[in-house]
Structures are given as C-alpha cells and as structure tokens.
Design goal:
five-stranded antiparallel sheet, globular, alpha+beta
C-alpha cells in the first residue's frame, strides 16, 4: 500500500485533491440547491459530445482520481456527486464528454442514476448503468451533436 502511494506523481496527488474537494462541493450543492440551478453546471441539455477523448491520458487520470477520492470522502459518495465532479474537471480541461441521467423501475421501486461517458468509455457511474434508461443528457465541452429527441 505504501509503495503504491509513493509511486504517485505530484500531478496525480493534485488531481486527487481537486477531485476530493469537488466531490464535497458537489454534495453540498446537491443538498442545498434546487435542480434548476444545478442543471447549467452539468452542461448543455439535449446535446451529446461526439469527440472521442476517452483514451487521452488526462481523461483516464480524472477517472482514477474521482474513483480514489470517492472512496475517501467524509460521506457516502454517490453517482450524482461523481458525475458533477467529472463534469467540472472535464470542463476545466476542455475535454468532451456527456453526462447522462437515467431511471429504472424494479419491483415497483423507482431508482435514478447519473453517469458520464466520453466516447464509448464510462468515466463515472459504470457500476449502476445497466437497467437504467437515459431520460436526459448534457454535453460537457467539445463538439456538439444535437439530439433529435423532443
């Protein structure tokens, strides 16, 4: 464990710190702000990114930083916290991605899930994506593809 910690570069530690702080800020925003104020933070509604930036090293580093930071937050970090954090980190670096909000219903219970994808790779929210139908999507930076959905 200590050897793994020593192998991290300064840039990885800085990105981890950024993710950890943004996860906490995202959680507070979710708890305190109405959704209509959060929506602009997610990106442009009904637009999807078409640029495939998922293989770029900094996008993979963002994914790892959020995964590591989410395990060490002062609360149980959830998918929406992580999606808002990813959106903020990607936007700051001018990377293209799409934030999705989805729902599913099983045994009469409705559940919601949020995830961020860049190209065909899922940056956050990959564990709960199966069975959830996207009901909204938001473009984070990058080129745009206008959805034909109403």
């Amino acid at each position: 464990m200590q050897q793994q910690l020593k192998k991290r570069s300064l840039g990885q530690w800085v990105m981890f710190g950024e993710a950890w702080i943004l996860l906490h800020v995202s959680r507070l925003a979710i708890l305190l702000l109405p959704f209509r104020w959060l929506a602009p933070l997610m990106g442009r509604e009904r637009e999807e990114a078409i640029e495939d930036s998922c293989d770029q090293p900094d996008v993979l580093e963002i994914k790892l930083a959020i995964d590591r930071a989410a395990r060490r937050t002062l609360f149980n970090s959830r998918c929406f916290d992580q999606a808002l954090t990813a959106a903020s980190m990607l936007r700051r670096r001018k990377k293209s991605a799409t934030l999705f909000l989805g729902v599913s219903q099983q045994d009469g219970k409705l559940s919601a899930h949020a995830w961020v994808s860049a190209g065909k790779s899922i940056i956050t929210g990959s564990r709960g994506i199966h069975g959830h139908t996207p009901v909204a999507h938001y473009r984070i930076s990058g080129p745009v593809y206008k959805s034909t959905a109403p």
